[in-house]
């Protein structure tokens, strides 16, 4: 029987569902049909595959070729199925032994010359292939990325002929682990150092608290006060990524088709979209759903500079991912879910001209203009930002070479890691994720402290959500101090980080 079966993987969000490529040769008028809910790029594979097989010096079957991509109800897109379809046709025609295909899964787009081109979503496919107990054969350019998965057997090929020779026992393919080692050699990447930020003691402290508890942070101040410098140094004081977190973050970039520096794949991502970015660019979407900036910042930092300049609709789509850590994209034909456990850092000016409250007195904005400017950020979004800090202009005396340097990122990171370890030991999660039961258990207040918090809530006009967020920040401040219980100084510091709320 002229039937061959090849294993492959589709791309569905950050998942990689198994796809069985079945190829059948039969009598009738010569032609090739592909069934199984293929998108346009998959339908065009019949022409790429036919020419690639001919250029590999094999005769394309002059028979009726039927290619079935199962399961039939799963949408298939991209050129990732070119290689398995070509191998299925050649196996059904008797050019390679069918039994050799069972131990492998294949991904790769074919050029007309028979060369293999890179595809997206290789890393999630490698994870699933390793769990299935098979080896993965991909284009050589993707092999090192796929080999990031511990225990995965990955082989990289340059051409269709290389794969055919390997399956017939007449040649070898590049080992993905060896390619990964060659690409990760000589890693000397460093984060920007916090010691380079002069002055801004309160903002530096807020940055440390944000890092320790994974809290969201808003920096407000005139232009040139160091808001962007502070934000860019947050990844350098965060705890290192675990292997699982690094793979999750890298998988999103793999699905998005972004180039990945294999020397720095374990570093936390830092994304800084421009304020003209659309909602789709920020959250993700498209006819074939792709991840947006918030998913590309998974387990890292999303920095939104000039926050009020973003379209209000764009900012509002952040509200749900800030709470859930995931984003679901629904389209008429398909749905996809992407992880979005990011840490938000935002920066803004206090008024349209940027100098409200500056000692220079150069601000000429009216109170109504300032109110409209700040109203671009909705109350519900502002309510979800734990730390809201003013970043004033730094005196010239603190900018000179003679001024003392602040603590380095390495010193601050030690305290952050120690505080985060206390949180993981106590609750198994950062403080920003504490639920109601854990808040009652870990954030108990004395009667006097509870009265202090109630007075602050009443004076600032804060919501019940803000009440719980203040408790979480106070718990983080206590963890940085090595305290088992939240004391009055810890609570007072957490309250003063809300001085910008709601829009005063």
Give the integer mean of the pLDDT values. 91
Integer count of domains: 3
Q: Cα-atom Rg, whole angstroms? A: 28 Å
What structural category characterises the helix and strand content? alpha/beta
What oligomeric state do these chains adopt?
Answer: single chain
Content of β-strand: 15-25%
Provide the CATH superfamily of the largest domain: P-loop containing nucleotide triphosphate hydrolases
Total strands: the figure is 19
Enter the CATH topology name of the largest domain.
Rossmann fold
Strand order of the largest sheet: 12-15-18-11-19
How would the global form be characterised? Answer: elongated
Give the number of helices: 21
Features:
38% helix; 21 helices; 504 residues; Rossmann fold; five-stranded parallel sheet; Ribosomal Protein S5, domain 2; 19 strands; elongated; four-stranded mixed sheet; alpha/beta
What does this structure look like?
With 504 residues, the protein is α/β, with parallel strands linked by helices. It has 3 domains: 3-184, Ribosomal Protein S5, domain 2 (2-Layer Sandwich); 194-430, Rossmann fold (3-Layer(aba) Sandwich), CATH 3.40.50; 434-499, no CATH class. Helices cover 38% and strands 16% of the residues. The chain is elongated, with a radius of gyration of 28 Å. The mean pLDDT is 91.
